[in-house]
Design brief:
With 560 residues, the chain is mainly alpha-helical. The protein has 21 helices and 6 strands. A hairpin with an 8-residue loop joins strand 1 and strand 2.
Length: 560
């Protein structure tokens, strides 16, 4: 079974190479192999999770080079669960994107850009979850950075380039800081392997150890969008195409949370920065949810709720107890799925009505009841309405806070309750504006472009004239497309200039079935955490016990 550990990383990379060899040909075959490889990664992830639960952590030394020389990959309960959830989500997002037509509209870009970049992103995420040392954790981050920059800026519009540039600058800063932390760790401990560091860092002077802990936490907090290091997120994610935004918001920030979980429990047990983490958690909850309350665009609302709910996970890490770590793991799995689902629904709304601006939406509960259900269920899940999985995770964290006692713990319990109530308020606000109230005058007759004509490259409007839809809807209108910057209404169904790949987007009341099916399965996946709440909680508590014990991980890697 140990031989399966590298495959979630290797399979997407190998298929990416195959796609580059094939080039812009055989579109159906390319779609098939993309779906097949992500399906295979999902199956492998489940096998690794089950094997780690039954037999303990699995490890493999690539090339049979022992630490600290060789590359070590490790799959335990935590990494197995994260792999399984992320693989399921990335597969669903790929199906969604194919239904939207975003990956196959152009003869060059989909094959040469989107599919390879997406598979490389999946490989980077898998590498991060399986990394057994700091260097390969860094490599996983950099693989994700390269792929995510391509996906954020795909289409080359000015808005996406600006947002992508901000994302890359922040990510490069965190990468440099990460490299400095790795160099310092190697200088004081003579290794970067997690299992070896677990013992050697305890012999390092407390001041140096605290400095290393603070540097690594800063790196991971940037990746996870923990306040005050989260200012880049609300402006970066909403500009990307809906499937890209969904997988980024749902998954990439959780890679930072996973890294915090791994290093805080394995390398820095009994850490001295617990109070600082709890302060950051409380600030993230408060600032994020208040920012969400102030927004009127659905994508920005969801971006700010993302920052807010990262605070719940950091809350669990800061308490550093079995119950809090277990609750944090439950909440990570829940949030990956629910946040991704909500962004997929936002994409469906944008595809149908041409905008995610809440002031220009209305009447969707009557005109699109299926879309209303697809939004309502994950929205209530995010708010933590019993007995949904959001409630299970929050209850576990709040119980752990009550059991721990102390000023910070009680402050976070109160902050968690208030944030949950405000999240419910925000979701109710979205429901009332977009779904429950009557549609504003003219809303049914217009499609609105999020990116104005001025943001596109010169000549985009000319290129868009007569172009096909970006998403399976066909073109029911005629005449030249007009961007939102023109101030002219665009008839529903007409081609407008500002879609994926900088081409065109068609508003359509009849949404492509793969988009609806992928979103529906994502909703069902979120509900499955409720149905399987007992086994899930038992599994995450076992994972928390394993993380805090450290011995099973160390013995699996070093063979002691």
């Amino acid at each position: 079974m140990n031989a399966l550990v590298p495959l979630p990383v290797l399979l997407p990379l190998c298929v990416t190479g195959l796609k580059l060899v094939i080039g812009p040909r055989l579109h159906r075959f390319q779609r098939f192999i993309s779906l097949a490889v992500l399906g295979a990664v999902l199956v492998l992830s489940v096998l690794l999770m089950v094997a780690a639960d039954r037999h303990g952590p699995l490890s493999v030394h690539l090339g049979d080079f022992a630490p600290p020389v060789g590359i070590t990959l490790v799959a335990d309960r935590l990494s197995g669960l994260m792999l399984t959830v992320s693989s399921a989500v990335t597969l669903l997002v790929l199906v969604y994107s194919l239904g939207q037509g975003m990956a196959d509209r152009d003869d060059q870009a989909p094959v040469g850009v989107f599919h390879p970049a997406y598979l490389i992103l999946v490989a980077g995420v898998s590498c991060t979850f399986l990394a057994g040392d700091l260097v390969n954790l860094y490599v996983g981050f950099e693989i994700m950075l390269v792929a995510s920059f391509v996906l954020l800026t795909i289409g080359g519009t000015a808005t996406r380039i600006r947002a992508g540039s901000t994302y890359v600058i922040i990510s490069l800063f965190s990468s440099v800081l990460f490299l400095v932390a790795i160099a310092m760790t190697y200088a004081v401990a003579g290794t970067v392997n997690f299992a070896q560091l677990a013992g050697r860092l305890q012999e390092v002077p407390i001041g140096v150890r605290t400095l290393l802990e603070a540097m690594l936490l800063t790196v991971f907090a940037i990746k996870a969008a923990v306040f005050p290091l989260a200012a880049w997120l609300p402006d970066s994610y909403p500009t990307a195409p809906a499937p890209v935004t969904a997988v980024f918001a749902g998954l990439l920030t959780k890679v930072g949370v996973y890294s915090m979980l791994r290093t805080q429990t394995l390398l820095f047990p009994g850490h001295r920065l617990g109070d600082l983490l709890m302060l950051a958690a409380l600030a993230s909850m408060a600032v994020g949810i208040l920012g969400a309350v102030a927004q009127t665009d659905l994508k920005r609302v969801l971006s700010f709720t993302l920052i807010s709910h990262i605070g719940y996970m950091v809350f669990g890490i800061g308490l550093a107890g079995r119950g809090s770590i277990g609750g944090a793991i439950v909440y990570v799995a829940h949030h990956i799925t629910v946040q991704t689902t909500l962004f997929l629904v936002a994409g469906l709304i944008e595809r149908r009505d041409g905008t995610t601006e809440l002031t220009r939406l209305g009447g969707l509960a009557k005109s699109a009841p299926l879309l209303a259900v697809l939004f309502f269920v994950p929205a209530m899940n995010l708010a933590g309405i019993p007995p949904l999985s959001g409630f299970i995770g929050k209850l576990g964290l709040m119980r752990a806070g009550v059991d721990a006692g102390g000023g910070w713990a009680w402050a976070l319990v109160a902050g968690s309750a208030a944030t949950s109530l405000l999240t419910l308020y925000v979701m109710a606000k979205v429901w009332n504006l977009a779904f429950w109230r009557d549609a504003p005058p003219g809303a049914e007759a217009e499609g609105v472009v999020l990116e104005s004509a001025e943001d596109d490259e010169p000549g985009d409007d000319e290129d868009a004239e007569g172009a096909g839809a970006a998403g399976g809807g066909g073109t029911s209108g005629s005449g030249k497309a007009t961007g939102s910057g023109s101030g002219l209404p665009v008839p529903a169904g007409a081609v407008v200039s500002a879609g994926f790949l900088g081409q065109s987007i068609t508003t359509t009341k009849r949404l492509p079935w793969p988009m609806l099916a992928a979103t529906g399965v994502a909703v069902a996946l979120g509900l499955s955490y409720t149905v399987l709440g007992g086994p899930l909680t038992t599994f995450t508590q076992a994972a928390a016990t394993e993380l805090l014990a450290r011995t099973p991980y160390i013995e699996a890697v070093l063979g002691r």
